[in-house]
Amino acid sequence: MSDKIKYLFDSNIFIQASRLYYQFEFCQVFWNWIKTLNPNGMLSIMEVYNELTVGDDQLKDWIKPQKMSFVNFDAVSAQYLSIIEEILRKDNIEPSKIKEFLDQKRADAFLLAYAKAHNCVVVSHEVSISKIKIKSHKVQIHNVAKDLGVQVITIFDLMRCEENYFLGLNKKAS
What we know:
Layout: E1 6-9, H1 11-19, H2 28-34, E2 44-45, H3 46-52, H4 58-63, E3 70-71, H5 75-90, H6 95-101, H7 108-118, E4 120-123, H8 141-148, E5 152-153, H9 155-161, H10 163-167
Parallel strand pairs: 1-4, 2-3, 4-5
Helix pairs in contact: 5-7, 7-8
């Protein structure tokens, strides 16, 4: 197996990039770069793909042809869902918030479980919130990742690591 870091992208990376700072009209290099980061062009898990194909916008138009770059959640990853649930219970998170976080229609828990099982780094814009605030907000990826042993970075952290691509010093195939 390669020593190359494998990245899994949270839905919010794609959503915020397409709507805010890396819109398709003027920053196609960002979208080309995303596809070069992982072996076999993997972007994330199917649960993220499903979240991104709900709307009717340019992001959906870009994501749909990338479907093969989203991997299926597997049995190895599934074993970590119960560990995630246990982490949340130990943190005294309300059962309704735990249920919401583990909902199959939301990708976050599945993203973390897959990352743990396959030694991936999660790329997300979510930030950690205090356990007190979880009562009025949803559980965030960071609230579970640390206890699960999964590294989470922002897209900007990743861009700093991969700056050679943007400087034209690293000719990666797309």
